[in-house]
Hints:
Low-confidence stretches: none
Number of strands: 6
Structural class: alpha/beta
Mean pLDDT: 84
CATH architecture of the largest domain: 3-Layer(aba) Sandwich
Largest sheet: 6 strands, parallel
Helix content: 40-55%
Amino acid sequence: MPQIRVLIVDDDPLVRSALSHFVSRGDDVEVIGEAGNGLEAVAFLERERPDVVMMDVQMPEMNGIQATDAITQRWPEVRILAVTTLDGSDTVLPMLSAGASGYLLKDSSAESILSGVREVYRGASSLSPRIASLLVKHVRETEPETGAAAALEALTDREAEVLERLAQGMSNAEIAQSLIVSEGTVKAHLGRIMVKWHVRDRVQILVTAAHAGLVDFR
Length: 218
């Protein structure tokens, strides 16, 4: 089975040890390194290339938001999974906008954290409905972009239905069940939205849609 190479970035060595223990339970995951801050993480990537970086947000010297932006700019193929105690809009939105493909809280179960690593590795996203809701609410209320929706290529009716369910925090399987289609069809619709809007993953679809006022939470 192919190995998912993981770098763990956190300024607390005990947290790094715990996260390493959690994700190493997966036969398909290999922790190839640890870093205590964003600067160390960037330096590590200059030597080796992990598939997934598990990134804390608050760290000295270079925080997780700055490091995520630097890494996604230089190595866009590397996926970032935020793993942090912070769930406020002042960290969630900047972290996801910087390029993180997922956002998990440190009180998540070991299985959830391992699943999050696998999801972002596959090109999906790991984003709880609560975090997704906070993201969209914050963008809609504080960062309206006049004319943003008009600037985006229009979605088909089915793509819009997929987007609506994505904004509700549904997984691909749940969207497929809701629309009575296959998961492959859902993935194809999401892929077309990414191409139309020039974004790289589900999280960036949400960010873009939120800026444009195209999604609501109920």
